[in-house]
Structures are given as structure tokens and as C-alpha cells.
Amino acid sequence: SADGKSVIFRKNGSPTAYQFYAAPAAGGLTKKMPLEFASTVSRGPAGDEFCFTRFYRSRNAWFKYIGGQQNQIWTHRNGKFLQVTDVPGTNEYPVWVKDRIYFANEQQGQFRLMSVPATGGKPRVEVLPTSLEIRELNTDGERVIFEHGQAVEILDPAAKAVTPVKLHLNSDLIHMRRNRVKAERNVFGAT
User: Is the pLDDT of residue 172 over 90?
Assistant: First the structure.
């Protein structure tokens, strides 16, 4: 939670998604969140508010999907649910940053990072459409970090800037990595 007093976790549920629970960070009994089922949940700035998607589509074939389990973004505030998006395509991985909700949207094989006011309204495109999948959004409450194809990037909404994350992985398995060598330097003859 925003105040650090609870942790959200999920367990397998039905029909196509998870059930979410909140556990006190200091220990104690868990409390089921007021959702029949959901796919992803992100806490809002206030203690009892959150945004979510209903259907677990992201690990399934969600590209170009236009069927009945097309996700929209919902919020729960003051005990009431509100659908805050009505965007073509399917929407995944919502995260709540200040007064906006950021999410990945896929329409006809094109991915974009979008946001919408937490109270609903006109969505805004934050990252222009791309053929590279945008997925696994997360936040520190100020910025949005996400996978973009094989890269990891950070969106800073205040600066309206996207920055790639430079990763350097140390490993003793360096010789297991793919290594391309020029054949002309290593092949001396063939019959």
C-alpha cells in the first residue's frame, strides 16, 4: 500500500484470473480484496483505492484480440467501482501514479503506453504505437517502468520523457551466451 502498512498478493482463482488479498506488512491475518476476480491490481495514493483489469489475457494470445474478454481499466474508490477506460483494443498492466492510471494498450498488433485520469476521461498516448510489445508495468509512485520489446524503459510523466535502463549482468555463464563468429575466419576448406 502507499503507506507501507500492507502488501497485496494474488492466488489462483477463477474463471480466468486471480483473487487478491492484502496482508499487514507487520504480520497478521489477510483480508480478501473486494473483487470477485482480477488479473492485475495497483494501489492508488489513498489507502483503500486501487485500479485493476478483470481478465487474465496477457499470458494468453492477447494480440489483436477483440472478443468478450477485452480488458478495460477499472477503479475502486470509496467502496464504488468505476470503469475509467473505453479504449479500442485490450488494456493490460494498469499502474496508478498520482492522479493518472497508466496502462499498456494493444490495437491490431500495435502497442502503446497510455494514461487516463483516475476519475475517467480522455486517454492520452504516452509512448507512440510500436510493433514491440509493451508489458509488465510497475511504479514507484512517481515514474512508470516497463518492458518494451527486449528492453526496459522508464517513463517520467513529469518530464514527459522515456529513458532506457542500461543493464549489465555479471554471470559465470558468459560462455553459454550466443556468440556469432565469422565463418571465413574459422572454415579452411569444405568438400
Answer: no
